[in-house]
């Protein structure tokens, strides 16, 4: 159902997908001259400042629209949890539950009451807090973020109430959702040792038992200036902002950050799991181990993903959805994380179709790439689609700040658009076939089926005797 | 940009007041050196213009098609589209799903290209094609690189004017819609939405899912889609829009070439109006999903139309009630204080005719009654204790601010302009919006609460295990239990 103030929403479905693109050359494989139309990567103008306590501040002034996005990228995610899974995410919620000078949820109310937007999210690698505001509200945002870092109030009462909120979130996203159950099971099957095996929202029993003491310890260990990247993009004065950040965040002391040492051992055989769920449309998911983010095979894996999944002319849509009509949706994609990556397969099976049949069709498409490779035409099309998607990250100040924050928190630099485009353009048909053969091996995959539970055995009279 | 210039653009008559506010602020700033920012009064808002002067241009073709073009050269991308002022509101319940079916078929072949050729032509440009709609409009959009403008325009014209409606594709699309309908029953939020609409508007187009029902979709075929397309796509009811790295001067001749020969047609009358008062008395519908640990909860009754003169004070009242996220009373009650849900929201479904006013949330099954009681109390309380001056001030700032954030991209601006054109609202609505919000007073929002909230007769829809839910709510009113 639609919220009020619908003006901007009317064409949402259509226009939010509006891609942007570099001025890509028609002949894929030739250099794209991004600056040809006076169009340059805005991140070229980004300034990086490192405070003496290790805090990194990225500033990018752009006064075209009256909006500024402030993002705090904390280099902590569920991979850093030790005793209680889900603590990084539960903690993210606690960051809105007040500090010495700010009552619970007042942070969000203050930003709202100045017309801004604020929220946060937690992944396996990062916890990100953001505020999208107009320039006159940026000082408030900086002081509010510094306040909760300096003076967070983690009380028993707040934790108790927020734990219930998170358990409702877990029911909504995972426990009552077939796709949520599928992904949770798949990651636990794919990773047996590395902390990526547990979901960022945590296992229920851990969320139920996480303590105030553990939350405080987590805060003291990871919410330290040398573990944080602040990214600001849009309509603001960077000198003024930096000055305010120095006066507030600058007071925090650096602390050495602990990390989990576990590495995932080589997988030596296919793994399978079945989840029973009372549903009509079964779900197929699968994953293969793939390189971590920044690896030189990343672009070839992206091209492979695109050929398999992007658009109605992609291989998986054509075969599984359009021709065979056995799935409602089917995609394969490269998911790059900081310590490891996966190449995943996901299919929403049509009600009445056997999940085994869809798996057979899906894996046959993977085999086809390994055996015969891809066509020149598919390669060119995928490159064009990737270029369009890549430059899409330049559309708003929020997406610009997110790109800056993520890249610097990961690589300590923002990879220039030209560099990324050049790497995509350099991918050959042989590369695509090679990465498929290298990573998508049958004995390296994990497969999960979510299907209805088997019908109960009819009672047979006489069994009791 | 300059705050003074933009303020005068929106409030030509109040520059004196703005100057006075600035003085107050300076005084406050001097008196409060060293105070944290959250103890200072909010700085005066600086209203930036929604559209740079001259960037938005309008024209009209001889056949009556309106043309709206917004130039924005920052990125080498464009979107082109055609919207018509008719959609699912025309479709009787026994043919529910026809609008969505027609839209899907338009993507499955047009002009010289069959379904695969059309998707191939789009994908190889890295472009995207969408055909979608709602109760009151249907929109075709193609987007891609500006250098591909002519090819994108050709695809758009084919899809709008020359969809093929092949029988084979119709069969496939119908089967896929039927399968999607069956699959959608796995999603508790969808079940809540469908049953809320049915409970309020059964027998009217608003009462059936826009994706149809198994019975209605099974009857759809290519000829019905072709006829529906012919009915709703007429140039004298259409808006052509374009945004991005382009301009009216060079685009208009190409648009004329692509759409100029499209002949005027009769504009279909809008569909029937729904009853003004729904429901007459409180009813409870339980959709039985014994497997769920968390129940979906929805309450609703009639609301407002998109063009209702009260829509802005109503939106402000609703922001305080449940539309304002963590600034809303319902979020405070249910989440911040109660720990009972992850999310709660309320709103008005604004359409040609009044759509529903609704509250939606979810909670663990044993807490459903407690949550329902708290929602009913907050609704009643909004009538007795309407928004305070402070609440209204905050709600205004939120609406005005989110309005600006929502229009950060030119694409969003154009979609808003098209929305205004669909409903025949004034062309300067975006420029006047902030002033209209600020003009609302507490007496207005109090009247909205009194006139628009009817908790005592709202329909209540619950999705979850019927046994456990029935025991909690059977004393609230008549209960209907249905299977998904």
Describe this structure as you would to a colleague.
The complex is a heterodimer of chains A (465) and B (484). Chain A is of the alpha+beta class and 465 residues long. Helices cover 40% and strands 17% of the residues of chain A. Chain A has 16 helices and eleven strands. Chain A has helices at 12-15, 87-94, 106-112, 138-151, 156-175, 178-190, 204-209, 212-222, 238-248, 298-309, 315-323, 355-372, 376-391, 397-411, 417-425, 429-439; strands at residues 47-50, 56-61, 68-74, 117-122, 127-133, 228-234, 271-276, 283-290, 327-336, 341-349, 445-451. Chain A has a six-stranded mixed β-sheet, with helices on both faces. The longest helix of chain A has 20 residues, at 156-175. Chain A is globular and about 65 Å long. Residues 1-38 of chain A have low confidence and may be disordered. Chain B is of the alpha+beta class and 484 residues long. Chain B folds into three domains: 3-39, no CATH class; 56-259, Cytochrome Bc1 Complex, Chain A, domain 1 (2-Layer Sandwich); 284-482, Metalloenzyme, LuxS/M16 peptidase-like (Cytochrome Bc1 Complex, Chain A, domain 1), CATH 3.30.830.10. In chain B, a hairpin with a 3-residue loop joins strand 11 (344-350) and strand 12 (354-364). In chain B, helix 3 packs across helix 9 and helix 11 (311-323) crosses helix 17 (442-452). The longest helix of chain B is centred in the middle third of the chain and has 18 residues, at 167-184. Residues 1-32 of chain B have low confidence and may be disordered. Chains A and B meet through helix 1, helix 3, helix 4, helix 5 and helix 11 of A and strand 3, helix 4, strand 6, strand 7 and helix 6 of B.
- What fraction, in percent, of the residue positions of chain A are helical? 25-40%
CATH class of the largest domain in chain A: Alpha Beta
Largest sheet of chain B: 6 strands, mixed
> What's the number of structural domains of chain B?
3
Placed side by side, the strands forming the largest sheet of chain B appear as 1-2-8-3-7-6
CATH second-level architecture of the largest domain in chain A: 2-Layer Sandwich
In percent, how much strand structure appears in the residues of chain B? 15-25%
Do you know the CATH topology of the largest domain in chain B? Cytochrome Bc1 Complex, Chain A, domain 1
């Amino acid at each position: 159902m639609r919220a009020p103030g619908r003006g901007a929403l009317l064409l949402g479905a259509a226009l939010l997908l509006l891609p942007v693109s570099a001025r890509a050359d028609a002949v894929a494989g030739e250099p794209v001259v991004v600056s040809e139309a006076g169009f340059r990567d805005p991140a070229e103008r980004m300034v990086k400042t490192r405070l003496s306590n290790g805090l990194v501040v990225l500033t990018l002034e752009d006064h075209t629209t009256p909006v500024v996005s402030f993002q705090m990228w904390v280099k902590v995610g569920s991979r850093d949890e030790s005793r209680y899974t889900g603590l990084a995410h539960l903690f993210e919620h606690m960051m809105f539950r007040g500090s010495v000078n700010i009552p619970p949820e007042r942070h969000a109310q203050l930003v709202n009451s100045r017309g801004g937007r604020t929220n946060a999210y937690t992944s396996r690698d990062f916890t990100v807090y953001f505020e999208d505001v107009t320039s006159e509200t940026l000082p408030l945002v900086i002081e509010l973020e510094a306040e909760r870092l300096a003076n967070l109030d983690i009380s028993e009462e707040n934790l108790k109430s927020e734990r219930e909120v998170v358990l409702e979130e877990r029911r909504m996203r995972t426990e009552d959702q077939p796709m949520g159950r599928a992904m949770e099971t798949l990651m636990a099957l794919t990773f047996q040792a590395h902390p990526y095996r547990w979901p960022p929202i945590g296992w229920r029993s851990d969320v139920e038992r996480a303590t105030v003491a553990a939350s405080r310890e987590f805060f003291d260990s990871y919410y330290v200036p040398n573990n944080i990247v602040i990214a600001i993009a849009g309509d603001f004065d960077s000198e003024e902002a930096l000055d305010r950040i120095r006066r507030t965040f600058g007071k925090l002391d650096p602390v050495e950050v602990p990390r989990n040492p576990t590495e995932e051992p080589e997988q030596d055989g296919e793994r399978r799991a079945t989840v029973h769920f009372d549903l009509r449309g079964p779900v197929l998911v699968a994953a293969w181990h793939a390189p971590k983010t920044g690896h030189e095979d990343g672009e070839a894996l992206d091209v492979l993903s695109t050929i398999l999944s992007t658009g109605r002319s992609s291989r998986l849509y054509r075969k599984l959805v359009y021709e065979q009509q056995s799935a409602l949706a089917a995609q394969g994609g490269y998911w790059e994380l900081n310590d490891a990556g996966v190449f995943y397969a996901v299919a929403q099976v049509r009600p009445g179709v056997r999940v085994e049949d869809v798996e057979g069709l899906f894996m046959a498409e993977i085999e086809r790439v390994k055996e015969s490779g891809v066509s020149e035409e598919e390669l060119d099309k995928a490159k064009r689609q990737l270029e369009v998607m890549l430059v899409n990250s330049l559309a708003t100040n929020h997406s610009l700040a997110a790109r800056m924050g993520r890249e610097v928190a990961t690589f300590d630099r923002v990879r220039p658009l030209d560099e990324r485009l050049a790497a995509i353009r350099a991918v050959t048909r042989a590369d695509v076939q090679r990465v498929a053969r290298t990573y998508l091996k049958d004995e390296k995959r994990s497969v999960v089926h979510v299907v209805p539970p088997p019908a109960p055995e009819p009672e047979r009279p006489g069994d009791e005797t | 940009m300059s705050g003074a210039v933009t303020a005068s653009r929106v409030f030509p008559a109040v520059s004196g007041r703005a100057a006075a506010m600035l003085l107050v602020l300076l005084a406050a700033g001097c008196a409060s050196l060293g105070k944290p920012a959250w103890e200072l009064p909010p700085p005066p808002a600086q209203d930036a213009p929604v559209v740079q002067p001259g960037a938005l241009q309008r024209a009209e073709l001889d056949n009556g098609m309106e043309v709206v073009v917004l130039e924005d050269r920052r990125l080498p991308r464009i979107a082109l589209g055609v919207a018509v002022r008719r959609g699912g509101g025309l479709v009787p319940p026994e043919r529910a799903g026809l609008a969505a079916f027609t839209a899907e078929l338009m993507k499955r072949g047009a002009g010289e290209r069959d379904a695969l050729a059309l998707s191939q032509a789009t994908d190889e440009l890295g472009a995207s094609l969408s055909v979608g709609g709602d109760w009151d409009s249907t929109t075709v959009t193609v987007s891609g690189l500006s250098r591909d403008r002519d090819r994108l325009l050709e695809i758009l014209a084919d899809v709008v004017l020359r969809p093929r409606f092949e029988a084979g594709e119709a069969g496939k699309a119908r089967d896929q819609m039927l399968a999607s309908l069956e699959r959608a029953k796995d999603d508790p939020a969808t079940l809540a939405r469908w049953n809320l609409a049915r409970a309020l508007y059964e027998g009217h187009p608003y009462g059936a899912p826009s994706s149809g029902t198994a019975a209605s979709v099974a009857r759809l075929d290519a000829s019905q889609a072709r006829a529906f397309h012919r009915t709703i796509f007429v140039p004298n009811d259409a808006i052509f829009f374009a945004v991005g790295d382009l301009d009216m001067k060079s685009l208009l001749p190409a648009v004329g070439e692509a759409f100029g020969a499209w002949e005027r047609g009769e504009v279909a009358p809008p569909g029937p109006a729904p009853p003004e008062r729904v429901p007459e008395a409180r009813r409870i519908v339980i959709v039985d999903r014994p497997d769920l640990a968390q129940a979906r909860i929805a309450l609703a009754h009639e609301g407002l139309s998109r063009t209702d003169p009260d829509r802005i004070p109503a939106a402000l009242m609703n922001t305080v009630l449940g539309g304002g996220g963590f600034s809303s009373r319902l979020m405070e009650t249910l989440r911040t204080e109660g720990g009972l849900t992850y999310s709660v929201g309320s709103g008005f479904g604004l359409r040609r005719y009044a759509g529903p006013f609704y509250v939606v949330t979810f909670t663990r099954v044993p807490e459903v009654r407690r949550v329902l009681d708290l929602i009913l109390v907050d609704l009643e309380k909004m009538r007795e204790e309407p928004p305070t001056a402070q609440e209204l001030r905050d709600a205004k700032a939120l609406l005005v601010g989110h309005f600006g954030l929502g229009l950060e991209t030119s694409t969003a601006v154009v979609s808003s302009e098209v929305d205004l054109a669909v409903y025949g609202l004034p062309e300067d609505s975006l420029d006047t919006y902030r002033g209209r919000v600020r003009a609302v007073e507490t007496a207005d929002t109090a009247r909205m609460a009194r006139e628009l909230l009817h908790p005592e007769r709202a329909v209540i829809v619950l999705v979850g295990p019927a046994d456990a839910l029935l025991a909690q709510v059977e004393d609230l009113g008549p209960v209907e239990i249905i299977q998904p």
